[in-house]
Amino acid sequence: MNDKQLKELFLKARQEGEGFEEPRAEAKRQAIDAALAEFEAAEKKDSTFFQGICKWLRLSRANSSTEDRSMNRYLIPGLGAGAATVFSLLFLVLLVDFDVSQRPLSSSPDDFVVADLTSSAKTRPADKALEEELIVTGIRASFDEAPEMERAAPAAKPMMAQATAAKRKMEASAFYAPSADMPAQSQQEHRDQFEHTELSGIKLVSKEPVSTFSVDVDTASYSYVRRALNEGRLPPADSVRIEEMLNYFDYNYPAPTDSSEPFNVSTWLSDSPWNEGKKLLHIGIKGYELEAQPKSNLVFLLDVSGSMGSADKLPLVKQSMNLLLSKLRKDDTVSIVVYAGAAGTVLEPTKVADKQKILSALNRLEAGGSTAGGQGIELAYQLAEANFDKEAVNRIILATDGDFNVGIRDRETLKNFVERKRDKGVFLSVLGFGRGNYNDQLMQELAQNGNGVAAYIDTLGEAKKVLVEEAHASLFPIAKDVKIQLEFNPALVSEYRLIGYETRALSNEDFNNDKVDAGDIGAGHKVTAIYELTPAASASQSHEPLRYANKAKRATDHSAEWAFVKVRYKLPSDSKSQLIEQGINKAQEQLSAELKQEFEFATAVAGFAQLLKDGRYVNDWALDDALALAKANRGDDNFGYRSEFVQLIRKAQVASDM
Questions:
Q1: Does residue 58 register a pLDDT over 50?
Q2: d(Cα 429, Cα 477) in Å, to the nearest integer?
Q3: Rounded to whole angstroms, what are the CA distances from 271 to 155, 275, 533, 548?
Q4: Is 592 exposed, middle or buried (0-12, 13-18, 19+ CB in 10 A)?
Q5: In which band, very low, low, confident or very high, does the pLDDT at 105 lie, cut at 50, 70 and 90?
Q6: How far apart are CA 488 and CA 206, in angstroms?
Q7: Cα 374–chain centre separation
Q8: DSSP assignments along 473-532, one per residue
Q9: Is pTM, for the whole model, over 0.85?
Q10: I need a labelling partner for 29 at 20 to 30 A (CA). Which of 5, 120, 547, 594 fits?
């Protein structure tokens, strides 16, 4: 009778109720003990070790009891499976260790993160221990899927207990276990830091007839928004700064003809596309183009901390600096300071003519350690001041993901330090890279206090735009502390709202105070600002009229003017400001087709940015409307940036929330 027949007989007898009982646990134990004792006795009788082993493994029914066969049936396969698991685990450990050390850089942003974590584990014992525990956790999973194996191999239970503890430790560790509710890419973006600001509200001209703000030529917000949309996700609302979205583009505004007045101001009035009965007042400023490129004394201050290890950070920094070198004069000077656990000089002041020496220093850089950002800034300024050239532009270019966690950590201390150095003629520009540690707020403040630009480099194409195509604007200032002030005529305007520039708002009394810092304009820079106005006679008033309010004093001498605009600025070497002023009248509603197209495209950008940030003031205007307006006003698009913007609107239509 074979095993199958015996099993069928047992089941039949049980169904017919012939008194069969469930085996008791004690009986099972006694049977197993007896089988083991019989095996040991039989082994002693065998003439050789191998013969005894073979006898134990045989499944002969003639020489074995029922308990022997039962033990062979369950114990041996269990031990075999356990041995297979151990050998597989050892192979996996060897494979992982080899693969991490040999793996090339991935082109996927997701893989950059994984590669960074595994490669850095070798230098962090605590993290390596967690990695080994994570492998042991796999044993737990295999036992969960095969309970028979667990029962057949009780010796593995202590290892399983350790694996369970390791698994719980992993689940509590955000380093190895991202939230299941949020993809890894979104988690990294979620850790980036942005300043929260409320939208500028609608002001009553009768109460606040004057509006004052600093210009802003930064573009970091646009690049960050683009990265998020290209990855299929809507950007964080606080990352959207409308003025930086507007000023990302090159507008064909009329340029000044004389360097003594470094920029020209253009204005235009149009109907608001998202609020019937209201108007948009466009202000466009075009900076003077330099005829000859000034000399430069540049210090590259490069973050080489561990957080910069991914391919969209330090490797992209190296490529970006290489691009910038191609735009510099041969007699320009370049130095390189790096910072991680500590700061150090890797290249003393070197002429660009010796480009190979500069590139060699760049190519040797590797990421590792913490981020002594404050110490790095101090050393960079020391180097810039030691090589200071009165006839050149003296500037530090900071390239980082913004993770300043060692050194001068206090934000106000850093800002004050940079401001004092600015007054000595050494400026600071900031280039942001990557995500996960991106401290946008700190970088914006450092650039503003350092009389420099803040840009976010998400691709090599963006590096080319900032450091090659717009190198003059990024590096060489033509005016500093540029402020704009508008006074609205209550006879024609009852309400106004400045779209964007929330972080650049100034008190009205700051306009005439030359001690108050404001934004700078580089050679050829364009600045765009848009106000939404409510005409005095319009039925689209946002504020309810007050029953007991005095009638606003009506202007009589300038009844044709909607507003009066004033621009105050200083030349780069001056400490006293100069003033440009002009009226904005009804004639500004008539423009050339070319200039109208420029302002209309800017309107599409402003509307799109409002929809991404906070659409409370655009009513039923939607992404489809922004798309149609942008497509109709692309104009000459030599570099393809406007076409790219059209595609970003399309991507926003299908993007998911974070």
A1: no
A2: 12
A3: 81, 8, 9, 31
A4: exposed
A5: very low
A6: 9
A7: 21
A8: HHH-EEEEEEEEEEEE-TTTEEEEEE-S-GGGB--GGGTT-TTS--EEEETT-EEEEEEE
A9: no
A10: 5
